[in-house]
Amino acid sequence: AEEHAAKDEL
Amino acid sequence: MNLFRLAGDMTHLFSIIVLLLKIHATKSCSGISLKTQELYVIVFLTRYLDLFTRFVSLYNTVMKIVFIGTSFAIVWYMRYHKVVKQTYNKDEDTFKHYFLLLPCFVLALLLHNEFTTMDVLWTFSLYLEAVAILPQLVLLQQSRNIDNLTGNYVFFLGAYRGLYVLNWIYRYFLQDHRARWIPWISGLVQTALYADFFYYYILSWKKHEKLKLPA
To answer: Which GO terms describe its molecular function (chain B) (predicted)?
Structure first.
């Protein structure tokens, strides 16, 4: 979950 | 989502639309590096692998599809369109862009968040995006005249990453206070590569002169 948050950007 | 990030995404989208319009309207891709465009296709494909597996938001999904679609369209135009492909001058597009792929991939294997296929490829796409503009900048330095649309394209492309830096500052200090070194450092490197272009672009704009990069 921690890293996935970083992938909410394009 | 904050204003800086939205502005960054819109500027990025705008830069691609400017490029597509230039190619479609003038039926010419002179001054455009095919190599940079091909690198962008690789960046988007490796960046958006989670397009179908993870839903962040409608905005996110739509933008990913648009970025993948438009970057493919640009490469298609430059490679296969009967008129446009003749205007591509491959002798001035000299940068050995395949030499960028391996170092970025090796670096992604060494420096990443999680050692999973998705994450390593996502990290690879960030490192690759940072240097993807190099063939285009090299081409601009070699080409005599830089037409306005091409200059604007590169300017907006640099502006998008600059806005993302502001977005990261905003997010870190005002939202989740979490350091994301990989996007930050690759984004800063990418923005730094535009620094001298920005300097000459603004200088030529102020002096109302044609944009000319020193060789």
So the answer is: ER retention sequence binding
Please report the residues numbered 73 through 102 in chain B whose beta carbons come closer than 8 angstroms to any beta carbon of chain A: none
Cα dihedral value B38, B39, B44, B49, nearest 10 = 100
Q: Give contacts of B122 with chain A, Cβ < 8 Å.
A: 7
Contacts of B60 in chain A (CB under 8 A): 8, 10
Exposure b/e, B140-168, CB count within 10 A at least 16 = b: bbebeebbebbbbbbbbbbbbbbbbbebb
Chains A, B: CB pairs < 8 Å = 29
**Minimal Cβ distance to A10: which of B9, B113, B176:** B9
Which of B47, B64, B180 comes nearest A6 by C-beta? B180
Q: What is the pLDDT along chain B (215 residues), one digit of tens a residue?
A: 999 999 999 999 999 999 999 999 999 999 999 999 999 999 999 999 999 999 999 999 999 999 999 999 999 999 999 999 999 999 999 999 999 999 999 999 999 999 999 999 999 999 999 999 999 999 999 887 789 999 999 999 999 999 999 999 999 999 988 999 999 999 999 999 999 999 999 999 999 999 988 87
